[in-house]
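Q: Second attempt. The first request was missing the SMILES, so the protein and pyridoxal-5'-phosphate are both included now.
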Amino acid sequence: MTGTNEQAARAARAVIPGGVNSPVRAFGSVGGTPLSIVSASGPTVTDVAGRDYVDLVASWGPALLGHAHPEVVAAVQDAAARGLSFGASTPGETELAEEVVARLTIRGTPLVERLRLVSTGTEATMTAIRLARAATGRDLIIKFAGHYHGHSDGLLAEAGSGLATFALPGSAGVPAPIAAQTLVLPYNDLDAVRDAFAAHPDRIAAVITEAAGANAGVLAPLPGFNGALALEVHKRGALLILDEVLTGFRVHAAGWWGLESSGVTGSTGWLPDLVTFGKVLGGGMPLAALGGRAAVMDLLAPLGPVYQAGTLSGNPLAVAAGLATLRLATPEVYARVDRASAIVADGVHDALSAEGVTHVIPRAGSLFSVAFRSGEVLDYADAKDQQSWRYPPFFHAMLDQGVSLPPSAFEAWFLTAAHDDAALDRILTALPAAARAAAAATPPAT
Ligand SMILES: Cc1ncc(COP(=O)(O)O)c(C=O)c1O
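A: Got both inputs this time. The predicted holo structure:
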């Protein structure tokens, strides 16, 4: 396929709303023409015009090993040759669940005893909420402003990701009574959680939280926040749903919980009741999951009264990609991603500092983002309180030099184990000009 990105975007807009199948891809907040990608390999993506870019989007997280890792591709090809989908159980599903359970057992404590595979993170969080409501007999849920948990009706209020990019408070088409079941609180604020439980005694089924916020830029939990939250939630007879769709198997072999539990950051010894996974779990294929203690998970049909199903759930190609990815995701892979991430984050800091651009680089493990402000970024209000108009020229200066960043200031940057020194050099070389573009940016006329 050949042509230009402009031609591809025009053709797409004629038949696809906004020309995209997920809003952030539209370049809405950075302007210009979105890339139309035809192939990807290792740290690079190639557009329809044949130009390649060092990629820091990584399919929005899944490509931990880099794009099209040969062993992952071979596993998918091998699975495809045996049939695309059976609508029946497969040995691979069990192997994948066993792999996840094993990874999430730290010092003998298993985070997950049962795992149900679904196709998207949205399904995983939606089902986790339904389970929590069934388990507690309560209706209300708490989510944090700026956290994104997919696009099910009840979870769109003050969500991050595309809603942050487009400055939307929520979505049209969500009935008010459904929106009213979700209480939205400021992140990293335990007092707000205590107050909400006090205001709604015995009515809150669950608190859902990103393990580390990464959808309004990076919003790391304060040290000890997740552990204290678990304590508070359990004291009130509610469940804690830890959303590891983005962080799971990306920041550590056992996700953000693993990072905290191994004492690297935060607090140890706390256990959420339900955990959701996606992205890296499917290695680039549509696969996600929810897991937890058997007592809660076994409320799912066919054992229990909570219904959940999916024609393509546990799809054999997706399972093959996921299993191959997890088996390849060794400690060396995480060390490489950590190193690449630190080099780029430090490079961004140095380049912006050299131009005198006020900024902070919030980090959560190997995830980071850039916020054009001074002071910590603890919650969604902080994340929005920045000179985000500096990002589009910064973004485009990088793109012009062959580096593809997330097309929004409100998204994390994703490094992969395939970002070798040559790829890192290309990024570092491009940064000074991007920093100059950010320095020269002017606020939009109001
Ligand atoms: C933390 C988190 N939860 C849930 C989702 C939704 O996953 P999906 O896009 O696969 O539906 C996302 C997607 O970005 C996410 O980052």
